[in-house]
Amino acid sequence: MEAMRGVSTDTVAVGAAPGLSGMESAARRAVGVTPTQPRGVALGGEDFARLCRWIVPRVESALNGVVLTRSPEHLQLLADKTVAICRQAGLNLDSDTWAALLEHLQAELVGYGPIEPLLEDDTITEVMVNGPNDVYIERGGKIVRADVRFRDDEHVIRIIQRIVAPLGRRIDRHHPMVDARLPDGSRVNAIIPPCAIDGPSITIRKFGKKKFTAEDLIRFGSVTPEMIEFLKACVNSRLNIVVSGGTGSGKTTLLNVLSSFIPNDERIVTIEDSAELRLHQTHVVRLESVPGEEDGTGRVTIRDLVRNALRMRPDRIVVGECRGGEALDMLQAMNTGHDGSLTTVHANSPRDAIARLETLVLMAGMDLPVRAIRQQIASAVDLIVQQARLRDGSRKVVQITEVQGMEGDTVIMQDVFVFHELGIGEDGKVIGVMRGTGIRPKFTPKLEAAGHKLGPEIFQAEYRYGTPAESSAAPKGSGNGHGSGNGNGRH
Ligand SMILES: Nc1ncnc2c1ncn2[C@@H]1O[C@H](COP(=O)(O)OP(=O)(O)OP(=O)(O)O)[C@@H](O)[C@H]1O
Ligand SMILES: [Mg+2]
After folding, report:
1. Would you say the CB of residue 350 lies under 6 angstroms from ligand 1?
2. What is the pLDDT of residue 97?
3. Whose atoms come closest to the Cα of 390: which ligand?
4. Would you say 287 and 270 are in contact if contact means Cβ atoms under 8 Å apart?
5. Residue nearest to atom 12 of ligand 1 (CA)
6. Strands, E, within 89-217: which ranges?
7. Is any ligand 1 atom within 6 A of the Cβ of residue 217?
8. Which distant-in-sequence residues (6+ apart) come within 8 Å of 443 by Cβ?
9. Pairwise CA distance, residues 327 & 336, whole Å
10. What does the alpha-carbon distance between residue 257 and residue 194 come to, in Å, rounded to a whole number?
11. pLDDT of 35
C-alpha cells in the first residue's frame, strides 16, 4: 500500500461532469466541492465510504478487464483511471483523502478488499469469511470475530475471483468450490452458493513468513527440548515417522521441523498439494500436485507423484499429507528401502492414525485384505507423533508412540511419551508435563546403531514445557493423560 502513496497524480480537480447519475451527484454533494476550489476537501466516515462505494465499480469498468498486479505500471494505471473519473465528476480531494482513496482502491482492485489488512497483519494466522457480514480470524491460537465486513455476497465473490483468476481457475454456480493459493503461498478455499447456504465463504490459512524452527516450538511450549532431541535421533536414524493430528493442529509445521533433521547429504523428495514445507537442505526436489481440469485432464495426484518419486532415487520421501490412495504407495516405499520417510495424517490419536491409514490404503482400490494392510502399516511405520490443538489454542505434541508390530490381527503400539494435563494457569493456559512411560522403544538399537545413545532414564523422566533442561521436577502420578496409558497398548 505504501507503494500507492508514491504514485504520481496531478491535483484531482475541476470540470463538472455532464449527466451525473443520482449517485454521482450525491457523491459530489458529499464531497461538497466546487469545480474551482483551489484546495481539495477532506472526506471521512460515511462520506468517504459512499465515495468508495461509488467509485470502485467505475474504476473497475474503466480498467476494461485488465487484471491488476502490484507492478508500478499497474498502480500508476489505477491512479490515472481514478484521477480521470474524479476529474470528470468534479471531485477535488485533499491529499490525505486521495491517499486513503487510492489505498482503498488498491485493496479492492489489486488486493483482497476488506480482508487485505488482515492478510497483511503477521499476527493473524487464519482468516475465515462466512458470508459478507461474518469474518473471523485466528490470532495467538484464538479464534475471534474481526471488525470487517463485505458489502454483500457479490463483493465476497468478486474478491474470490480476484484470488482465483490469476491461476486460471473460476468459481460460479456451476463450479461452486475452489482451492487456490495467494502469491505468498497462503492456502485458500472458497465455496459459494448453492453449496454455501449462508453466503460465499473463504478460508485462508496464512503462510507464515517465517517457518517455525525446533527452537520456536520449544519456546512456545509445544514440545520439550528432550522430545526434540529424541525426535532428532529418530529422524537421523531413518525411522519412518507419521505426524498425526486434527485440522490446523500444527502437523505441517512439525513435519517441517522433523524434515529439518534429515542430514544434509541425503537426497530428499518432497510431495505436497501446495508447497508449504521449507527445507534448508541443498539436495531437495520439490513436487506439487496439479488439480487439473473439471474432467480430470491434466490432473496429477499426490499418488502419481509418490510413484514418480520412487523412480527419482530418493533417500527420503516427505509427503505433506496422506489423504488418499497414496498411503499405500507411501507404506510400500517405507517398506522397500526408503526408510526415514515422513508424512502426516489427519487423526485424533495414534490409534486413530493407524485406522485412518487403513482406510486410506483401501482407497487405493487394490482390494487388499485388512490383515495384509495392517501388516504393511505395522512394518512400515516406526513412530507416530500426535500433535493437538488444546482448548487454550496452543499446539502441542501430546503423544509419541512406537508401532511395534503385529500380534494376531492387531497392530501393537506402545506409548513412549505422553502429555499429562495438570490444570489451567491464571493466564488461561493449559499447564502440563510430558512424561516418559518408562518403556524403552524396541527401535532403540536402531538409534544406537546410528550413534544416538539414549539411557533408560530419559524414558522414565517427566519433562516440563518451555523450561529447557529443567526436567524430572514434578512428581509422577497426577493429571490426566491424553495417551492410551502406560503398558502394552493393544489397538
Ligand atoms: N507449535 C505451534 N505453536 C503455535 N502455532 C503453531 C504451532 N504449530 C503450528 N502453528 C500454527 O497453527 C496453524 C496451523 O499449522 P499447520 O498448517 O502446521 O497445521 P496442520 O495441522 O498442517 O493444518 P491442516 O490440517 O489444515 O493441514 C498455522 O498458522 C501455524 O503457524
Ligand atoms: Mg497441513
Report:
1. no
2. 84
3. 1
4. yes
5. 250
6. 124-130, 135-139, 142-145, 177-181, 187-191, 201-205
7. yes
8. 234, 237, 239, 382, 383, 402
9. 14
10. 40
11. 36
The predicted structure's pLDDT at residue 72: 87
Residue 345 CA to ligand 1 center (angstroms) comes to 14
Which grid coordinates belong to 393? Answer: 489454542
Atom from ligand 1 closest to the CA of residue 396: 1
Pocket-testing residue among 179, 395, 396, ligand 1, by greatest number of atoms within 8 A of Cβ = 395
For 46-168, strand residue ranges (E) read 124-130, 135-139, 142-145
List the one residue out of 190, 170, 171 whose CA is nearest residue 179.
Answer: 190
User: How many Å apart are CA 107 and CA 52, to the nearest integer?
Assistant: 11
Residue from 111, 149, 150, 142 nearest 124 by CA: 142
Angle at 454 between CA 264 and CA 337, to 5 degrees: 45
Q: What residues does the ion ligand 2 have nearby, CB within 5 Å?
A: 251-252
**Does ligand 1 lie within 6 Å of residue 245's CB atom?**
yes
| Exposure of 252 in the CB half-sphere (CA atoms within 13 A) | 20
Closest ligand by atom to 254 CA: 1
Write down the pLDDT at residue 476: 39
> Are 461 and 472 in contact, with CB atoms under 8 Å apart?
yes
Burial of 329 (0-12, 13-18, 19+ CB in 10 A): buried
Nearest CA to ligand 1 atom 16: 250
**How far, in Å, are 101, 237, 404 from residue 449 at the CA level?**
66, 8, 18
Q: Do the beta carbons of residue 441 and residue 452 sit within 8 Å?
A: no
Instruction: Please give the average pLDDT of every successive group of 10 residues along the chain, which has 491 residues.
Output: 44 36 43 46 79 88 80 88 87 83 87 90 94 94 92 90 84 90 90 94 89 93 93 96 96 96 95 90 93 83 93 94 93 89 96 96 91 95 97 94 95 96 89 93 94 90 67 39 40 38
Closest-CA residue, ligand 1 atom 26, reads 248
